[in-house]
Every structure is written in C-alpha cells, then in structure tokens.
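Replying to the earlier thread about multi-chain prediction with a worked example.

Input:
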Amino acid sequence: RKEVEQDPGPFNVPEGATVAFNCTYSNSASQSFFWYRQDCRKEPKLLMSVYSSGNEDGRFTAQLNRASQYISLLIRDSKLSDSATYLCVVPPGAGGYNKLIFGAGTRLAVHP
Amino acid sequence: EAGVTQFPSHSVIEKGQTVTLRCDPISGHDNLYWYRRVMGKEIKFLLHFVKESKQDESGMPNNRFLAERTGGTYSTLKVQPAELEDSGVYFCASSPGLADTQYFGPGTRLTVL
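Result:
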C-alpha cells in the first residue's frame, strides 16, 4: 500500500463548479498535512496546511479525519487558473518532518 | 527575495556519463532537500542537509548518487555513472527550520539516453 494515495483524476469541471479531492495516508503517526499545487512543468507550491479542525482559505477548504486517515480539499467556484495537479503531502511525523511524502497527485482541468 | 534556483534546467546525457546538478537555496535557509520525480511516479525524497551536514539520506537510491553541500550554502547532486532509470525531474527545496514550509526550486529535468 502506498503511504499517500490520491485519485489521479483527471477531474474535468466547468468554471464555477465545486470539486473535491480525497487523500488517504497510511502512517497513523503523521502530525502534519498539506496540499501542494503543481502547474505543468513547474515546481510544487504549498497551497495550504491542513489542521485538525479543518480550515478555509478563500475558495479552498481542507478537512482532516484522523480516525479514517483521510484528508480532503474542496474548491468552490472553480476558476480556469485552478487547473493544475493537486498533491497531498504527509510527512511521516515522529521526527520525520524533514521528509515530505507526496501522493501522485490529482489533476484538475477547469474549462470555460 | 530570490527563490530556490537550480541549474541546469534541462540535461540530456548518455548512459554511463556523469551529471552534476546544482541547487542554490533561499538565502539563510539552513535546511536543503533533494527530491526526484521519475516518469509516472510520485515525487520522492532523496536527502536532507542541515547546513553542511547530511541529516537524512535514506531516500538516495544507490551509491551512484553523491550529494554535497560544502560551506552550507549551495548543494550539488552528482550522478555517476548515469543509468536510464535516473531520468526524471530533480527538485531541490529549502526551509529556514525543520518544520517550516519547504520552498521548491523549478527542478532539473534529466534525460538519460
């Protein structure tokens, strides 16, 4: 089983749609959780951290379910500029904060 | 403030040759990381420097890979001799502290023919 698993997509949605991505992780000791965004042929960039109580940043909402070892990212009112690959990232925790563990990514394509 | 820079952006070499990748972290960042993405796979951790010391090299695939960070500033990753399976994108990242956000460079796309 992979340490971090994501639905690869692609998700093809029209502008204005709401889309949700899911991610599961295998290491129950993990304490930090992140969503990164990667544009085609670019570097990954931190989109948002995920906190236990869930957190929101504008159109983006992240949720964490520790019991199920599940993380989600919800994007509301999708824009063309949201088209990218969204990477779920879970450091192993317990002193392993240096080592980011990436999922394979979920591709999002927003069309007019 | 300048971000993480990597050189070269692309490298095409033949199997058996040597290639050296360079990473310049954000100024003042003690932590420097190397990651790699091979075709169709997820980005994987290679190693982590704190200043000039290797903190964790558990992700290095084999002894054909040698990373250095002399002086605790820029880092190099040398592949010698290169094999076909080494093709991929090599990312460098840096952070001020261990639990801080890692900022990634644009990557070096390595193609081994």
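The radius of gyration of chain A is 13 Å.

Feel free to reuse this layout for your own posts.
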